[in-house]
Amino acid sequence: MLFTFIMLLDCLPWLQVDQFAVTQPQQLFDLLQFPFMQRAIAGGILMGVLGGLLGCFVTLRQLSFFSHAVGHAALVGVALGVLLQLNPTWMLLPFTLLFGLAVLYLIDQTDLWSDNILSIVLSGALAIGVILTSFIQGYRGNLMGVLFGDILAINRTDLLLTLLLLIVSAVFLLSTLRQQILLTLNQAVAQVQGIPVQLHRYLFVVLLSLAVAVSIKAIGILLVNAFLVIPASTAKLLSQRFTRFLLLSVAIGALSSILGMLVSGALNFASGPSIVLVQFVLFLLVLSLTKLKALPT
Question: Which terminus of the chain is less hemmed in, N or C, by CB atoms within 10 Å?
Fold first, then answer.
């Protein structure tokens, strides 16, 4: 947390990079004519849907800390990419994938609680990442962009990667929905019924790690976990039926991305934090409404 606070203070001027001011509806319409804005909106919607889809299983399987650890540990991949003068995105994909699988393997091979393992590997990876960043000389725009996100900078390759991952995730999870629900509720029962529990666990971690990687450029390492947790948590407050819960999570993820972009334009805020702020406000509104309904009349 101290590292995060220091980086935020150091990079406040950079946070203005992806801001754009819109004072009139016509200006917003004109802005939508630019390809970079169209890619940003499309990317936000795709990532919102992807986060909502995977987030349902993340919250129910109590993997929020896992995705948080993968996101923060991605700093190592980013720093390596900058040091090697490679595109940080292409370093993030293999690094987060290997890190996620390695963490799950360690959890399976030790008697320690999973949160202990996650805390250990997160601390170690973050320490390595901070040390690596100290070797980066000169302009650190690429590094800062991945830390805090810049949804306006996503390109066609990012969109294609996100779309491909969304399709693969949807096909895998929806085609095995019954098994996924059973795995979520009771892994022991699922194993008795012949479901390959370990295979499904590792495949889901692969999807989750890649989802974190493709979302980091738009949302940033420090906020990417919100895309997986907040929409699903909001949807869970609205429905206890899994199918409706899943649909609501996806809808909230997509809607919050659109609203976040509009807030970013209207109030001249950074786009990534604006989307997360909208998700947070929606969560508080839904929570308040559900508490009011629960009050005795």
Answer: C
Residue 30 confidence class, pLDDT cut points 50, 70, 90: low
C-alpha triplet 201, 207, 210: angle, nearest 5°: 135
CA distances from 212 to 48, 87, 207, 233, 287 (A): 12, 16, 9, 17, 26
Q: Assess contact for 251 and 184: CB atoms under 8 A.
A: no
3-state secondary structure of 282: helix
Confidence of residue 4 (pLDDT cuts 50, 70, 90): very low
- Tell me which of 11 and 294 has the higher pLDDT: 294
**SS3 per residue for the chain:** CHHHHHHHHHCCCHHHCCCCCCCCHHHHHHHCCCHHHHHHHHHHHHHHHHHHHHHHHHHHCCCHHHHHHHHHHHHHHHHHHHHCCCCHHHHHHHHHHHHHHHHHHHHHHCCCCHHHHHHHHHHHHHHHHHHHHCCCCCCCHHHHHHHHCCHHHCCHHHHHHHHHHHHHHHHHHHHCHHHHHHHHHCHHHHHHCCCCHHHHHHHHHHHHHHHHHHHHHHHCCCCHHHHHHHHHHHHHHHCCCHHHHHHHHHHHHHHHHHHHHHHHHHHCCCHHHHHHHHHHHHHHHHHHHHHHHHCCC
| Cα dihedral 278, 265, 49, 78 in deg (nearest 10) | -100
In whole angstroms, give the CA distance from residue 285 to residue 278. 10
Q: If we measure between CA atoms, which residue out of 27, 29, 71 comes closest to residue 276?
A: 71
CA–CA dist 62, 242 (Å, integer):
16
**Amino acid letter, residue 224:** V
For residue 286, give both structure tokens: 């839904």
Cα–Cα distance, 80 to 95 (Å, whole number)? 10
Instruction: Identify the residue whose tokens are 């009050």.
Output: 295
